[in-house]
Design brief:
Blueprint (H helix, E strand, L loop, with lengths): L3 H8 L15 H8 L3 H22 L4 H9 L3 H4 L1 H24 L1 H19 L5 H15 L4 H8 L6 H6 L2 H29 L13 H18 L7 H6 L3 H15 L4 H7 L8 H11 L2
Helix pairs in contact: 1-16, 2-14, 2-15, 3-11, 3-12, 4-12, 6-7, 6-8, 7-8, 7-9, 7-12, 11-12
């Protein structure tokens, strides 16, 4: 008759293949040993660009519907469909980006989000119809749904002692993006309106000319493109790599972080990165059996 220990060990669920490794890597301890430095400065800068781009694309929806609606001869109430499509697409696809970040990596999900925003924003400048513009802004909304992915990545690249203030240091980027959107809208729309009035002989007594919203969309897409060019330089989360069985890659990321920071933590990392073996599940169950009597 099988004893209690063997029965419990046999009935225990088998973990996924990528979690069956018997070696343990203490990522948080390694991050604490590395500390904050140049690596985190550049990572925060790159992720701040993502947040600025996201803020610009969100706040652009305050200017785009009335301007584009006037150009296409669409009723103001109907023009609000642009913002509705963007936010609606974002609501629907947000859970998908969470699943993507878990399955394919925080960095991959972040790059996917910024690339979708770039494509949707740039393509919007050439939208031939109002319906096409709505669809393209919905595509931008899909990219906006990956808003939390870079924060997850930054949190998993930061030492525990400085994780809170590192994440909070990115908060200024949203406000900066809001101010930049208002400034760009004021400059682009006011300057273009003055040029159009001059071309129309002063614009007095005639019909108002459509506001050239395409220039505004093009200008506000430039920070998004810049973020898309910079973010590939950000490394993947070592915690995610380890959780998916990519131990050697996680070690290379941690060593790269230490070399960029020039913190001299490599002698600590040698101990932290050395494999430490767990007790087999059967032995652990047997020990618990004998301890319980």
């Amino acid at each position: 008759m099988p004893d209690k220990a063997s029965t419990s060990a046999a009935s225990a669920p088998t973990p996924p293949k990528h979690l069956q490794s018997t070696s343990v890597l203490d990522v948080d301890a390694a991050l604490d040993a590395i500390g904050c430095g140049s690596f985190h400065f550049w990572t925060v800068t790159a992720i701040s660009l993502f947040v600025v781009a996201q803020s610009i694309q969100t706040n652009l929806l305050a200017f785009l519907p009335p301007c584009a609606g006037a150009a296409f001869g669409v009723d103001p109430d109907a023009a609000a469909l642009i913002a509705s499509a963007s936010f609606g697409a974002s609501c629907i696809t947000t859970p998908l980006f969470g699943a993507c970040a878990d399955a394919f990596g925080r960095r991959t999900a972040t790059l996917l989000a910024i690339c979708i925003m770039s494509v949707g924003g740039l393509a919007s400048t050439a939208a031939p119809t109002f319906g096409t513009l709505v669809l393209l802004q919905a595509l931008v909304g899909v990219g906006l749904s990956g808003a939390t992915c870079p924060f997850e990545l930054l949190a998993e690249l930061s030492p525990s002692a400085a994780r809170g203030r590192t994440l909070n240091s990115v908060a200024w980027a949203w406000a900066s993006g809001t101010l930049l959107t208002v400034l760009l809208a004021w400059v682009v729309l006011s300057v273009t309106a003055e040029d159009d009035e001059a071309d129309a002989g002063g614009g007095k007594g005639g019909h108002p000319l459509p506001v050239p919203w395409r220039r505004l969309v093009l200008v506000t897409s430039m920070p998004v493109v810049l973020a898309a060019c910079v973010l590939p330089c950000v490394t993947e989360s070592p915690s995610w790599l380890l959780a998916h069985g990519r131990r050697s890659k996680a070690k290379r990321v941690l060593r790269h972080m230490d070399s960029v920071n020039r913190g001299g933590a490599l002698h600590h990392l040698k101990k932290l990165l050395a494999p430490r073996h767990k007790k087999p599940a059967a032995a652990t169950a047997a020990a618990r059996h004998f301890r319980d009597g």
